[in-house]
Amino acid sequence: MNVLVDTSVWSLALRKKTLTENEQDCVAELQELIKELRVAMIGPIRQELLSGISEIDKYRLLKERLQAFEDVVTTKEDYEKAAEFSNQCRNLGIQGSHTDFLICAIADTHNMSIFTTDKDFIHYSTVINLRLHEARGEIRGKGKKTT
């Protein structure tokens, strides 16, 4: 199963210099997923990773390295599903970003788990069907429906 890796995990590997033990585990897991060719990328995550890099050489280097990861094709149905997920969560008092719900929709459509350190996804998973990937290869199923 492919894994949609969220910006929060990439940022640990690419930007943070001092890591906690848990963060080190996340980076090691990302490295393993890359070796196994299981990493999935989407345009909004690529954009978040490349945004805010003021040094042009660092920007170009990261852009070049990220080219190894093809973007999952995003369709209008993915955006519609993201809006549906957002509405379902909002109706129960759970707020989230448009990008977060797009990640959820694409993962659902393409039968992928999500690898993130963002705790908001735990809240989303109480309402929508998500599989959250954890370091050391564990996948925990959450959500009200099963696939």
Question: What is shown here, in short?
Answer:
With 147 residues, the protein is of the alpha/beta class. It is built from seven helices and five strands, in the order E-H-H-E-H-H-H-H-E-H-E-E. Helix 1 packs across helix 2 (21-35) and helix 5 (76-91) packs across helix 6 (98-109).
CATH level 1 class label:
Alpha Beta
Give the helix/strand class: alpha/beta
Q: Count the strands?
A: 5
pLDDT under 50 segments (min length 5)?
142-147
CATH superfamily: 5'-nuclease
Q: How many angstroms separate the termini?
A: 14 Å
- Largest sheet: number of strands, sense, barrel closure: 5 strands, mixed
Please name the CATH architecture.
3-Layer(aba) Sandwich
**CATH fold topology:** Rossmann fold
Anisotropy-based shape: globular
Helix and strand run: EHHEHHHHEHEE
Strand content: 5-15%
Output mean pLDDT: 91
Looking across the biggest beta sheet, what order are the strands in? 2-1-3-4-5
Radius of gyration equals 15 Å
Please estimate the helix content. Answer: 40-55%
**Number of individual domains:** 1
Number of helices: 7
Strand and helix map with partners:
Blueprint: E1 3-5, H1 7-14, H2 21-35, E2 39-40, H3 43-50, H4 56-66, H5 76-91, H6 98-109, E3 113-115, H7 120-124, E4 130-133, E5 139-142
Parallel strand pairs: 1-2, 1-3, 3-4
Antiparallel strand pairs: 4-5
Helix pairs in contact: 1-2, 5-6
